[in-house]
Amino acid sequence: MTFINKLNAAWAANDSLLCVGLDPDMARLPPQFQSAPDGIYQFCTAIIDATADLACAFKPQIAYFAALAAEGQLERICAYLRDKYPHIPLILDSKRGDIGATAKQYACEAYDRYGADAVTVSPYMGSDSVEPYMEWRDRGVIVLCRTSNPGGSDLQFLDVNGRPLYQHVAQLVADKWNANGQCALVVGATFPEELAQVRAIVGDMPLLVPGIGAQGGDIVATVTAGKTGSGSGMMINSSRAILYATAAVGEDFAQAARRVASETRDAINAAR
Ligand SMILES: O=C(O)c1cc(=O)[nH]c(=O)n1[C@@H]1O[C@H](COP(=O)(O)O)[C@@H](O)[C@H]1O
């Protein structure tokens, strides 16, 4: 099944636009996982089990694993997801970008090593740096467009022939790079105005929208700006707010994650 078909099915099956981000920060894991040799795997799979019926996608961020030399645990987490929840898209967030020959290795890493349905990539190096990903015709390529961080404006807002650069990226992906029909764009929830601009440019193309939760993006503004005509079209990511949701002393971390994921999904749905 293609990435887009899988995403459409997951949106419908779980009635959810929520993407659960897997960013395991060792210092913030419950103590029992900090001391276990496969603690990251145990923590992430517990979060996955607690939220799988509430999510339209899972998105592990590779840096959190690579920094701890825990790629083996990431491989096992991806295998667990593919085995137990094959209907939920797995997005590897690695934001790669390099010359074609090297990009091909990054594509192998995402699609073959980790078995991801989609991968995040940077458009900065241009068309030949994203073409290798398209050789996997059924897999998703999620291109950075208008990122959620304040510094994203440094380059993405540069005026290019009367239009900000991020709009050129959106147009380029919609018109030229999406030959397989498996592209999506990253647009931050922290910038609803730009989200609406991108939606107007790309039609129904899916958008990966990080920035609610820990980064403070407003859910109602995000959904209003980014939804398609049918009230869908987004993978709205939250990582830390779900992973480290435990508020009350004694509350189980997985139950807390489920509670916040459920509240977030419901808040998103209320605004669709
Ligand atoms: O591509 C991404 O996922 C991404 C793009 C972007 O513009 N901003 C952004 O925060 N992200 C990622 O989305 C996640 C956000 O995490 P929280 O802020 O904890 O919800 C992190 O894994 C970021 O690396």
From TrEMBL:
Gene Ontology biological process terms in this record: 'de novo' pyrimidine nucleobase biosynthetic process; 'de novo' UMP biosynthetic process
Catalysed conversion reaction: orotidine 5'-phosphate + H(+) = UMP + CO2
UniProt keywords, alphabetically: Decarboxylase, Lyase, Pyrimidine biosynthesis
Record-annotated active site: K95
MF GO annotations: orotidine-5'-phosphate decarboxylase activity
Pathway: Pyrimidine metabolism; UMP biosynthesis via de novo pathway; UMP from orotate: step 2/2
Protein EC: 4.1.1.23
Domain Orotidine 5'-phosphate decarboxylase: 17-253
PANTHER family: OROTIDINE 5'-PHOSPHATE DECARBOXYLASE (PTHR43375)
The protein, known as: Orotidine 5'-phosphate decarboxylase
Source organism (scientific name): Pseudoduganella plicata
